[in-house]
Amino acid sequence: MTRKIIRVFSLLVLLITLSVAFFIYQHQQKSQKITSPSPLLFGTNIGLFNSQDSFLTQDSVKKLMKTMHVTTVRIPIRQISDGTPPVWPQALQDAKDLNLLPLLILPVSSDYTKSVTEDGQIITTVNSIMGKKRVFYEFGNEEDLSNGTNQYKYTDRWNQLVPALKHLAPAAWFGGPVTFQQNAPYVAYFYHHTDPKPDFISWHTYFCTPQSSAQACIANVAHFADDMATTKNAIQANGDSIPPIFITEWNYDATQGAIDDPRNTPQFQQKFVKTVLQEFAKDNIYAAYQYVLNSNPAFNLINTDNTTLTPAGQQFQLMYKQLITAKQDATPLP
Predict the structure, then answer these.
(1) Are 265 and 257 in contact (CB under 8 A)?
(2) pLDDT in tens, 244-287
(3) Which tens digits make up the pLDDT trace of 28-50?
(4) Cβ contacts of residue 7 below 8 Å, gap of 6+?
(5) Are 186 and 144 in contact (CB under 8 A)?
(6) What sign for the dihedral angle of Cα 156, 176, 332, 127?
(7) Is residue 187 assigned to a domain?
(8) Assigned domain for 100 exists
(9) Is residue 252 within 8 Å of residue 262, measured between CB atoms?
(10) Is residue 254 part of a domain?
């Protein structure tokens, strides 16, 4: 009888010990879990201001994009000023051929019939090129700035138009509100009151003004974490969960820089790109699009000779190796 009691007691102690050990293991695994940087941090905008954009015409540009490990490109739907046919379908085909994940900017109009027709034609063209491959769409571009559209009007337009557009591309991701800068009340209202919900939220981030020093531009990058926290808190205050976050334009000066800007030295370009991409990785940004690949000499990743990388492009390339290639557990492309 005594031996039986001892065996039962020993078994009970063993079970308790195993349970405690398992609990400690789970806690350690949870506390040590690290979210890997997304390869989609390495996106860029292409300008397409004319039919001679070097992305379209120069194979050397495409080769340099591969060396930089560009993973995704943001494509504007522009009407070319000289009256030539739109070139964005060619850009989309080129992006597909390069195995780049495209993000297209859908025009937004207060005219429901016009928007449904125009955007529907765009999506139909995209479907004919991309087939079943993943595509991102942004609903408008800085409507809060260029058209003075507040969050109420923008959300109403989304709710009117996007259901019909998603029906045409059920596998695509649709997102917004694409504000000029971080705007927590705008984003939170939009996300809470949309039907259907966006697949991602997006805004643009420029870290300084023409009056800011180079040091201030770099220092301002650290404030991005505060902006992220403010936006996330505003979303969660409505009882909503945080969707994937896209920064679909980023650079140092929203005025799009100046060629003779004294701040814009090779040393500044490299430090700025490094600091921004490190910050985005730390803050778990899902996708980010540098502005711009090749259509503004002050911002370009590729020099105007179309054969060499700018200092910014060189650092972009290096950061991919540091943040993605060096981490075998990096988040896979969707």
Answers:
(1) no
(2) 999 999 999 988 666 678 998 999 999 999 999 999 999 999 99
(3) 333 333 468 999 999 999 999 99
(4) none
(5) yes
(6) positive
(7) yes
(8) yes
(9) no
(10) yes
